[in-house]
Amino acid sequence: MQFSQFELAAIAIAIDDEVLEKRSETTKRRWGVHPTWRKREAEGEFALLYKELIDDESKFYGYFRMSKECFTFLLEKVKPDLTKKITRFQKPISPIEQLAVCIRFLATGDSFKTISYSFRLGHSTVTEIVHSTCRSIVKRFKKDVIPEPTEEMWRKIAEDFEKLRGFPHCIGALDGKHFVIEAPANSGSIYFNYKHTFSIVLLALVDACYKFIAVDVGAYGRNSDGGIFAQCNLGKRLENGTLHVPIGKNLPGSSTFAPYVIVGDEAFPLKTYLMRPYPGHQATGDANKTNFNHRLSLARRLVENAFGILTQRFRIFQRRMKLAPENVDYIILSTCVLHNFLCEQKDYTGLISHSAQNAQPHLLNPLSVQPGRPANDAFAVRETFKEYLASTAGRNFIGQQYQE
């Protein structure tokens, strides 16, 4: 039997319609909540484990990377944002379980799918919980734990650097940290860095107690630390003098006037308010310059230790993050906020000493060195600190204030 072209076309259309109908039947959602997830309140990780953890402080800390008191205080702050209305269709997930899911995700670095199976929650539910909780943490805590510094706060930071780190008139250690991400779609090379990975950069200013004074999150991985600093609010406000930094004074035990400064590595420009080490070829054979570089390095490595504490506590940063850049920004910012909050609560047992012991020299890519010649005033300020640290007054100051 032969068919006309018209009849063949009609048969083909009928077959396609039948295939599409069968496909839609097989892919149709069979339930609102998967039967596995319905057992969450009886067999989920939170239901089974949390009630046992609250009776054992060490196990609680090992699971959440924070003490029970800090977790409870955190819950009270974010609870209004995480509370959902009860409907006749289903019971909402409690704020305490949402916070547990988020903190566990940050603390372990497990994937959303792994957290989904262990807590018996849908993949999309876990994703939404983590992102909404991180935003709530930033909203509720950032202004309190990373406030804009006042003159009094700057002076207190400088006193801590003098007493604890042996560098006078220092108001912060500055550096950038690359957090590895999966290459965003259609992003080209803007996130591609000199380490041949894709990343988002956290630029941070840290005090003598490992707390973040100011942070800038979200810069593209291809940008240098110096370039990011020049474009961020911190760099701009330091440059135009609107960050409430107090006027300098005489260095301890001397009549030598010097401004308050921050310390950084060779990636940053030399400014009257930003000290960086002498280049290696200049310091070689010059004891005073070598001494200055050593003292500056001891103060500057605090920011690297702070990054080490951050990545130890929140192990999500020890793997490549498969998230949209805007979500990564909030995750990084929320962990910085949590870091300061936990430092204020003295909740860093075992983290600081381990980080300091394992601190490694920061190796710079030659292309990341900030171009351009500093102004003569910046050279003069660095010379002032160099001469002071090599003087009798400077050596006495270090001997009295700093114990290595």
Automatic annotation (TrEMBL):
DDE Tnp4 domain sequence ranges: 174-340
Cofactor(s) this protein cannot do without: a divalent metal cation
Keywords: Hydrolase, Metal-binding, Nuclease, Nucleus
Assigned GO CC terms: nucleus
Keyword Metal-binding recorded: yes
Localization terms from the record: Nucleus
UniProt main location, coarse: nucleus
Gene Ontology MF term list: hydrolase activity; metal ion binding; nuclease activity
Family assignment from sequence similarity: Belongs to the HARBI1 family.
Record-given protein name: DDE Tnp4 domain-containing protein
